[in-house]
Amino acid sequence: MTLMQPFRAWRPKPGLERRVAAPPYDVLDSAEARALAAGIEESFLYVSKAEIALEPEISARDPRVYDAAKRRFADMCAQGILLQDATPCFYLYRLEMNGHRQTGVAGLASVAAYREGRIKKHEHTRPDKEDDRTRLAATLRANSGPVFLIHPEHPGIEALTERRIAASAPVYDFLAEDGIRHTLWVMDRPEEIRELAVALDRLPAMYIADGHHRAAAASRVADDMPEAGAGFLAVVFPTSQVRIMDYNRVVRDLNGMEETEFLHRVGEAFRLRRADGPVAPDARHRFGMYLAGRWHHLEADLTPEQAADPLACLDVSILQERLLAPLLGIVNPRQDMRIDFVGGRRGLEELTRRVDSGEMRVAFSLFPTGMDELMAVSDAGCVMPPKSTWFEPKLRDGLVVQTF
Prior knowledge:
Blueprint: E1 4-5, E2 10-12, H1 17-20, H2 30-37, H3 45-48, H4 63-78, E3 82-84, E4 90-97, E5 100-110, H5 111-116, E6 119-120, H6 127-140, E7 142-143, E8 147-151, H7 155-167, E9 172-175, E10 181-187, H8 190-201, E11 206-210, H9 212-224, E12 231-238, E13 244-245, E14 247-251, H10 259-269, E15 271-274, E16 286-291, E17 294-299, H11 304-308, H12 315-324, E18 339-343, H13 347-356, E19 362-366, H14 371-379, E20 390-391, E21 402-403
Parallel strand pairs: 6-11, 8-12
Antiparallel strand pairs: 1-5, 2-3, 4-5, 4-10, 5-12, 7-21, 8-11, 9-10, 13-20, 14-18, 14-19, 15-17, 16-17, 16-19
Helix pairs in contact: 4-6, 6-9, 7-8
């Protein structure tokens, strides 16, 4: 199998796309999903988070949830809410938010390339989340949510996609409830499909930006169900068009320290100075810290060895190794309930709100991880600390679905 192939997508009947398309399953809790889908029976959330159709006390991992998802997906296909394309196609998917625009190719990414490391990852997966997506895919006999991939610059790919966009009208073009615009074109001409498949296959690698659990689940399903084929649903974007937003931290307590002692110890690990207002770091190795109603600047100095290490030079690694673990005792941020993460568009206001409310004691703002840093870590075969990257805008579930 080439790096990416076309497929026959199930997608919303024209006119229903805004009602069907749903945020990714992992950016909403059950209560938020239930509220968002209220009164919208076509919402794909009834598939991706099917617990919202059941009693609130039922666990999202209950077998009845997967059965409900299967029934709802089958109904959407049978009722014509979702229609399947007659021939394999590529799909061009554009996202727009606050003046930012990115256009990617939706297709089937190679499971073999994922296993061989040509589709590269930068995160560990959690067994419970991986098991959940594996069970959902096997129950639906479908990959219902796309993996978000990025690829190194390749002018030929962008020229092909822009040529197709200029020559045809989109099948969908709508503004979602969160203000993000979603536009989809169908690339169904055989000669264009072949040309794009060849161009994509010439890429040295693709990188998972978001969707590690979905990719791992698809690989497992391909082992257990040969009919699943050798590909998983993905959308791949050029690195120049994709942006990573800051992913900040809030902590519930000071690990038994008083404020004065904590500030002293922070000052031993970083260059520390008081700020006049909220701190949005403007460069790598600079941080903001909000404590007791005041913002502070933190700046880290790196040794040449640390600067050359693709993992050690990450700001998320610096904060973890110099402050969160040794000072606040947060050794495993993936499991420690004393830390939480604030990403995307919530901004510094959310950090100050959570500290001022008394829910959290201290907050840290970080400079966004760079695309070059993500690829360097992936190329080195390393894994980033949890919650290192926040990609926005997000792909929607339900616009293209792959069945097997």
